[in-house]
Amino acid sequence: MNDAFHIINKPSDWQRHDAEHLPGKMQALAATATIANERDLDKSAERFRPSAALLTAINAALAARVPLLLTGEPGTGKTQVAWFIKRFFKIPLFAYQVHSNSQAADMRYDFDAVAYLRDAYVARHGGETPSNSPLSGGEPEKIDPRSQQRYLKPGALWQAYDSTTECVLLIDEIDKAPRDFPNDLLQELDQSRFEHPFHKGEYVSRKGAPPIIIITSNGERRLPDAFLRRCMVHHIALDKDLLLEIMTAWQSQFPHLHPDTREAALKRFNEIRDIPRLSKKPGAAELLLWLSVLSAQGVSKAALADSVALKDLPALMCLIKDHTDYGHLG
After folding, report:
1. Is 291 exposed, middle or buried (0-12, 13-18, 19+ CB in 10 A)?
2. Which residue range(s) make up the domain with 12?
3. How many domains would you assign to the chain?
4. pLDDT per residue over 162-204, tens digit each?
5. For residue 195, what are the β-bridge partners?
6. CA 321 – CA 46 distance, rounded (Å)
7. Same domain, 253 and 305
């Protein structure tokens, strides 16, 4: 039994478990946290191995200083490109994760309307207003109190513009946003500025060089033509060569797999990806998860041999996300 995998069991005697086995189990559990920490984007930047084609796209976008839009299925390393550039130049990175309800204004700033209205109510009706509130009395404000730091927080775009050094701006998974979101960023992409939300006629403009803008898309929907015209576009295909590169870069995550076993696992993984009827093909994240579990289980090359049916491969729950796909494994 491999203790790296069989962390939890079914105790027959809970008192004995607590007295004798729990300390060792907690140590084994802590080891899994170390594995998870290695997936941190900042740490994993040094493992990233961009292809020659991707490097050409990155350098072209830098030479022209235009946004680089990276497309491809999840797990191809699109997001990691921004962190790779951050690590390469050792410059700040400002990231915005796009959501289905995102608006372009969210990238510019966040306004705490609740705190502002609460302070305004207290100031008007009496009571103890926080001392750091611009509504707490004293000298009258010469500027709109809503622009005070207590209420107005710069977003990723504003922070990038405030940077006096080179920096990276990541707009992650832009295809998740409403259709107007990309078009609402056109002025920012062209002019590197936007109007201050509360100071009419005043603009927030970049203080240093234009940010190195990396935009990612999983291709869930087509982006507007006007937006695409302002970007350099590169598609990252999750092919067999890229999967081999990813597996090699992350091999320290599965130390108990012999190189021959890793190669056998990748071969069987590609066989599963080649099945046309799968509703959800496993990607790079699933591959790394599978290899980590196989390593923890101490799986041998024999368990992954060509003679083993795909449906009988170990730890398939790491690869198959739709239960109906098990029926397509043969």
Report:
1. buried
2. 1-37
3. 3
4. 999 999 999 999 999 998 899 999 888 888 889 888 888 888 8
5. 203
6. 30
7. yes
**Is the residue at 42 inside a domain?**
no
What is the chain's length?
330
Distance CA 194, CA 178 (A): 20
Q: Are 178 and 167 spatial neighbours (Cβ–Cβ below 8 Å)?
A: no
Whether 271 is in a domain gets the answer: yes
* Residue 119 falls inside a structural domain: no
| Residues 176, 81 share a domain | yes
Confidence grade of residue 152 (pLDDT, cut at 50, 70, 90): confident
- SS3 annotation, the chain: CCCCCCCCCCCCCHHHHHHHHHHHHHHHHHHHHHHHHCCCHHHHHHHCCCCHHHHHHHHHHHHHCCCEEEECCCCCCHHHHHHHHHHHHCCCEEEEECCCCCCHHHHHEEECHHHHHHHHHHHHHCCCCCCCCCCCCCCCCCCCHHHCCCCEEECHHHHHHHCCCCCEEEEECHHHCCCHHHHCCHHHHHHCEEECCCCCCCEEECCCCCCEEEEEECCCCCCCHHHHCCCEEEECCCCHHHHHHHHHHCHHHCCCCCHHHHHHHHHHHHHHHCCCCCCCCCCHHHHHHHHHHHHHHCCCHHHHCCCCCHHHCCCHHHCCCCHHHHHHCC
Q: Are residues 66 and 103 in the same domain?
A: yes
Radius of gyration of the chain (CA): 26
> Which of 192, 207, 235 is the last residue in one of the domains?
235
Residue 146 · residue 110 · CB < 8 Å: no
Whether 159 and 304 share a structural domain? no
Partnered with residue 212 across adjacent β-strands are 168
Q: Note the pLDDT tens digit of each residue in 245-257.
A: 999 999 988 999 9
Domain stops at, among 191, 207, 235: 235
Q: What are phi and psi of 195, to 5 degrees?
A: -75, 140
